[in-house]
Amino acid sequence: MENLDYGIVGNCRSAALVSKTGSIDWCCLPEFDSPSVFAKLLDKNIGGSFEILVNDDYTITQRYKRDTAVLITTFSKGGDVFEVHDFMPRYHKDNGGYHSPPELIRYFKHISGKPRFRVKYEPKLDYAQNKTENYIKPDFIASLTKNGRFETVFLYTSFDKERALYGEEITLDDHGYFLLSYNEKIFPPSVRSSYLDLERTKVYWLNWSSKTPNYKKYNKQISRSAVTLKLLSYDRSGAVLAAATTSLPETIGEVRNWDYRFCWIRDASMVIKVVTELGHVNMAKRYLRFIINIIPHKAEKLQIMYGINGEKKLTEKTLEHLEGYEGSKPVRIGNAAYLQKQNDIYGILMDVIYQQLERFSTDIENGEELWTITKGIVWIVSQTWREPDKGIWEFRTEDRHFTFSKVLCWTALNRAIKVAQILGKKHKIEKWKPLEEEIWNDIYKNAWNEKVGAYTQSYGSDHLDASVLLMEAYGCVDAKDERFIRTVKAIEKELSNDGLLYRYKNKDDFGLPSSSFTVCSFWFVNSLFKIGERKKAKEFFEKLLSYSNHLGLFSEDIDFKSKRLLGNFPQAYSHLALIECAINFSRKESEEKILESMS
């Protein structure tokens, strides 16, 4: 049984997953959502990989360079030791822009002795749909497809190219490198240039991480999660990806396999809210520009998700030739959910717009455009809030009156009114207040199920749903409200399994859910914390943190029994919720210490 024991490296243009033994098993170039160059993750036989092979008597360990996205894999056998520093270059240029080329560097640092290794270099371009052929040229190894979609990549190295390509043993007695590039380099790289790229990239990440505040507790987890969220942001457009992968199954052998290399308005907005709180305002500014760019017309409704360059059509296809992760078919590219109607996205986006205006009202870019979007959102919500939808979990069949969707419709009005207050638009406040109250009364009346003793998944339903825990986070109910306390306890009884939560237990389009949705477990921890059960909340949080992989990374799901990570990886949702929990615990401890010192 395998776990998702991978590290992620990237440069806000694309990303790669590196296994704990130093094998690159997933990488798409030139961008996140491009066809794969390596996809062993989705098919061990034909997917393609870039592996570093040593004898069994070597010990392999792995860690991140602290506060960076540089991954270090150490290979040691007695006095024979070397490190591989994997990274995608990213650093500031003299003109103020960023150097973020579509390339991956593997810098070999000789530590001691004469360690030996072999390389298994097997790129399989375009999702391995056609044969990839390799050719040794004077300056590089060229890999290309002749049939189907034409693709090429170029591998530069300081090592003997024939020995590398044919898997022959290499003795390391000095530093060296491999550089995989989507484009042919105008100036051939060298060991020195690769080292300079490594150092500049480290400096970029250290500077970026230095903006993240220091907290009393869980600093390490907050920092790693923040870097991971940054790695899932696409610099060119401002989009934020849900995850770096496609088709990693929620449950082994089942068909809940989706492509997450897109920008969901919900997930991205939640990410931006958290990273803004951490002080990374440039990500927020880029994201708001992305939103402005995808809403060209005042009357145009938001889709729930877009391509990372703002694409509106994300046609879903299956790649039948790939076996899938541990045989879990199908492998999907594209995502048909882009056609769905989910009414909650307007409230989540309005929450972010309000946050930005509240923090930077005197210095906000695009303020007039954001006010136009605010008015448009209120108009759309006023027309649609009474209608059923697919809900946060993207039920693909019937529409329902989901409680979470109604709560976020209320949130849209609540935040729009606050934006109007900031901007001094009194006539809008008077106009919108009655609608805000009407939606709240509708939720209070119809979402509560007295028999169950909780707010339930949808109007008239007996089913519980973890998403209603966010009612308190968005301010729809107070943490001391008896109904909310009863809801948290009902969800604990029905959906919690040793602190790991189901999203829901009722049947959906694909049967009964059978794994824990990671973000829901963090929501549950936060809810326990908010209602005053802090000791229990902290115990569950500590246990939850122990289920991360060896590098502190989380996927979408956790198996209830084995605790193995499942689903797409790394998952933005999971890491933003981890940060929220960690900040809450850290702040509370700081407040208590201040009170102790005053008493």
Automatic annotation (TrEMBL):
Pfam families per UniProt: Glyco_hydro_15 (PF00723), TREH_N (PF19291)
GO BP terms, alphabetized: carbohydrate metabolic process
Name of the protein this chain belongs to: Glycoside hydrolase, family GH15
One of the record's GO molecular function terms: hydrolase activity, hydrolyzing O-glycosyl compounds
Domain Trehalase-like N-terminal positions: 8-133
Domain GH15-like: 217-582
InterPro entries (UniProt xref): 6-hairpin_glycosidase_sf (IPR008928), 6hp_glycosidase-like_sf (IPR012341), GH15-like (IPR011613), Trehalase-like_N (IPR045582)
Sorted UniProt keywords: Hydrolase
Taxonomic path: Bacteria, Pseudomonadati, Bacteroidota, Flavobacteriia, Flavobacteriales
